[in-house]
């Protein structure tokens, strides 16, 4: 038809620009620098600008510490129950299912055996992404079985703790019982003359800090990790005094003899191998 005007392209089509894909950049929690995510990943989850240690997953921790393709996972089939019929904002089984889908984990810790620079050991890692790495009955059972296996096979055990949740309230007394159970297993491991290296990361709190995380023959910690039972704000409100500067950081605890060494993440694998070789 004469005089007909063809529709002009939409403004979106004309001005569409190629955007930056999501997830390319990230912000440091400590110095607030904008960082290229791939640079942080190459640095093992450490800020290239200020050295802040980001939280990393249990599987990533295993990849960083162990020789490639040597990890053999144990007790992956253990799943939590709901003994109390617990319900806060959602029923406990729903919460567990959501955490499993989000993290790709079945529970808040992974245990198994592997090699560090050719040295065989048992490794257990808690993951703060799964209900803050809290210790429920499955976490306690997996840790206990791993420790007992290490005792039978006369192997050192390394436990990397990242728990801001302590004992898991959703399971009540069954969760609190795990503190004693895991501690007793570590006592038997110690009596058998075997080495337990405890690695504390940010945060290590509550019942985890009050039990197996504090029972290492050698206790290592990452820089500026928050470590303690109750949080500093709760303690300050309870006792009514101003807490010392840096209270409950790994630097404060090293100064007061609670931990043995602060080890940068880049050096952790080599330090663990060195300590096991030295003790053995």
Structure description:
Helices cover 35% and strands 15% of the residues. By secondary structure, the chain is α/β, with parallel strands linked by helices. A seven-stranded mixed β-sheet has the order 3-4-5-6-7-8-9, sandwiched between helices. The chain has a two-stranded antiparallel ribbon with strand order 1-2. Helix 5 (137-152) runs parallel beside helix 6. The radius of gyration is 23 Å and the shape is globular. The termini are far apart.
Task: Write the SSE topology.
Layout: H1 11-15, E1 25-27, E2 34-36, H2 37-42, H3 58-65, E3 72-74, H4 92-103, E4 109-116, E5 119-126, H5 137-152, E6 157-161, H6 173-191, E7 196-200, H7 206-209, E8 218-221, H8 232-239, H9 250-255, E9 261-262, H10 265-279
Parallel strand pairs: 5-6, 6-7, 7-8, 8-9
Antiparallel strand pairs: 1-2, 3-4, 4-5
Helix pairs in contact: 5-6
The residue ranges in which pLDDT falls below 50 over 5 or more consecutive positions are 1-10, 12-17
Beta content: 5-15%
Number of domains: 2
Derived from helix and strand composition plus strand pairing, the structural class reads alpha/beta
Inertia-based shape:
globular
User: Largest sheet, order of strands side by side?
Assistant: 3-4-5-6-7-8-9
| Count of alpha and pi helical runs | 10
SS elements, strand count: 9
Q: Identify the CATH class of the largest domain.
A: Alpha Beta
Give the ordered list of helices and strands. HEEHHEHEEHEHEHEHHEH
Report the major sheet.
7 strands, mixed
Task: Determine the CATH topology of the largest domain.
Answer: 2-enoyl-CoA Hydratase, Chain A, domain 1
Distance between the termini: 92 Å
The CATH architecture term of the largest domain is Alpha-Beta Complex
Supply the CATH superfamily name of the largest domain: 2-enoyl-CoA Hydratase, Chain A, domain 1
Radius of gyration: 23 Å
Helix content: 25-40%
Mean residue pLDDT? 91
Pfam family, one: Zn_ribbon_ACC
EC number: 2.1.3.15
Subunit structure: Acetyl-CoA carboxylase is a heterohexamer composed of biotin carboxyl carrier protein (AccB), biotin carboxylase (AccC) and two subunits each of ACCase subunit alpha (AccA) and ACCase subunit beta (AccD).
InterPro entries: AcCoA_carboxyl_beta, Acetyl_CoA_COase_Trfase_b_su, ClpP/crotonase-like_dom_sf, COA_CT_N, Znf-ACC
